[in-house]
Specification:
Blueprint: E1 3-4, E2 21-27, H1 45-53, E3 55-61, H2 66-75, H3 79-82, H4 90-93, H5 106-112, E4 116-122, H6 134-137, E5 142-146, E6 161-167, E7 170-176, H7 177-191, E8 197-202, H8 224-248, E9 255-261, E10 269-271, E11 274-276, H9 285-288, E12 292-295, E13 304-311, H10 315-323, H11 339-343, E14 355-359, E15 362-366, E16 370-373, E17 378-380, H12 398-410, H13 421-426
Parallel strand pairs: 1-13, 2-8, 2-9, 3-13, 4-5, 4-8
Antiparallel strand pairs: 3-12, 5-6, 6-7, 9-12, 10-11, 14-15, 15-16, 16-17
Amino acid sequence: MKKLLILLWMSVTVHAVDRPNIILIMVDDMGRDWVSSYGAEHSTPNIDKLAEQGVLYQTVWSLPICTPTRVTLLTGQYPCNHGWVQHYDVPRWGGTGLESKKFTTFARTLRGSGYATAIGGKWQINHLGKDPDALDKHGFDEHCVWPGVEEGEPETEERFWNGLLITNGKRSKVPYGPDTINQFLIDYIKRHKNDPFLVYYPMLLTHGPHTITPMNEANPPEGKLALYAGNVTYMDHLVGKIVSALDELGLKENTMIIFTGDNGSAASGNLNGQPYPKGKGREADWGVHVPFIVRAPFLNEGGIVSRDLIDFTDIYPTLLELAGISPSKQLKLDGKSFIPSLRGSEDPFDKRSWIYSQIGNFRMIRDWHHLVDNKGAFHDLNKDPLQQNKVSSLDKIAPGRRQRLQMILNRFPENAPAPFPEFKIKHPGLNK
């Protein structure tokens, strides 16, 4: 089904596309251990189909938990540089949130170059009740979002059944939030099929509370794990709907679709027949090692499995290169575009040789084989993916690799100041 090439694959001849469309899908709280194309037991046929038509990346890191991942994705900066190093729920806890005067999101940059832009899903990094123009200031022309639980507003607590959504500034209760958002984005794509567009889809599923879905409400599953599995199934169904709608409009050949997750799973799954621990919030590889699939027919023929390294700071520069945008000198990005990887480049200088993640004051870095963290851990992830054993003293290559990764880790700066005063009050134990 796939032609597996460990590090490199031969370039293929594909037609060039000027200003292609972009759909960025990010599932909430689900890692590789629930995606069958990665070797999970649970079936995800629509995601698997994307993998068959594109590139399945085996080694991609996000951040261990929700809002730091989203800020890193949107800004293209590591947490130590943007300061949002821990989870912070702005609508519930207060504060300014992500400030458009300090940070320019990829949506704002793409909109400034002529892209139509929309977001559908979860926001939570600004208080949209107090700052209703925040999404526009961050670069989104249109939106259909669950704003997060707002303090003193109990109607905002529900995001699924009878959920509260904000659609282009208007608040309303909807029968089932994930369906409404999905249809909003499909309608947006239809209205902008002749424009270059960016659709950012930070999905509500599979975050808790895990409930029944329209697919299993007639026969509700029993138990927390079964409910979570049902949420994964319905998430996969919604991915299939938006991809099918795009393809039926004849937009497949000039659209890049990225599918990923924001952190490790909120429920334990399995990989290749072995139990796999839930990763959300964990200071470990399985807390940040997420699915990452890219379908871009104008860059490759698909059916590829890659071990090229990617972390979430790489998405922003990739979107800029794809759109033909040269970043301004004021735009500080930490990542590296993976367009050469998608094109099949064989030049190692086109690709990363390490990736990084952090939560709070905890930091870790890895290459294709080994992981080093700032607590002194060192593991061979190929032999010990759950980081349970010390590296063998007989491994003569490991010391050099450990030294290299440690040197890179030591070069990272101290954490930037807290992004707003309330953040520091909530997390007083963090460094500067």
